[in-house]
Amino acid sequence: MMFQFSELLTLVSGLVMLVYLAYHAHRVAGIAHLRLLVLPVVLTAVAWIATVLEGVFLPAVPAHDLVVLQQASIVSAHIGGPIAHALNLVEHLACAAAALAMLLALVRLSKVRPEVRQCASPSG
Predict the structure, then answer these.
(1) In the prediction, which pLDDT does 1 show?
(2) In 77-113, where does DSSP find H-type helix?
(3) From CA 95, how far away is CA 42, in angstroms rounded?
(4) Using CA atoms, how far apart are residues 121 and 114, in angstroms rounded to an integer?
(5) Could you identify which of 34, 69, 90, 92 might form a hypothetical disulfide with 50, taking C-beta atoms 3.0 to 4.6 angstroms apart as the criterion?
(6) Is 86 exposed, middle or buried (0-12, 13-18, 19+ CB in 10 A)?
């Protein structure tokens, strides 16, 4: 196993956020602008899960070997196995998809009429 504490902390906080969203799904469904952000959040959580699982399937590498692996990317590409590589691919695809979904959500939100935006604001 090879993962960092920060990855576990990010995963736990992301899962708490997903549980909160699932618990309040009926409220989220009623707010159109908030619904647009659910897909990027879910895709980001998928990437976090894949990151931690990838670490589970990677072999532990002694610290003195890490320097060599960082300098020789061809060697480091062979560490792991098909499961770790698949999880790495899922992680990167999910991050890219989350970024694209966030971009599309922001573009859609930027096209909302000003009067609708004013009504949706907390002070309006």
Answers:
(1) 62
(2) 82-110
(3) 10
(4) 11
(5) 90
(6) middle
**Is the dihedral angle over the CA atoms 102, 108, 113, 116 positive or is it negative?**
negative
Nearest to 48 by CA among 99, 101, 95, 4: 95
The string of pLDDT tens digits covering residues 77-99 is: 456 678 888 888 999 999 999 99
pTM confidence score: 0.70
CA angle 103, 23, 119 (to 5 degrees): 55
> Of 58, 57, 76, 56, whose CA–CA distance to 66 is shortest?
76
Q: Per the structure block, which two tokens stand in for 117?
A: 């935006």
How far, in Å, are 54, 80, 96, 118 from residue 12 at the CA level? 16, 24, 21, 35
Pure H helices in 1-124: 5-23, 25-29, 32-35, 38-57, 63-71, 73-76, 82-110, 114-120
**10 pLDDT tier (thresholds 50, 70, 90):** confident
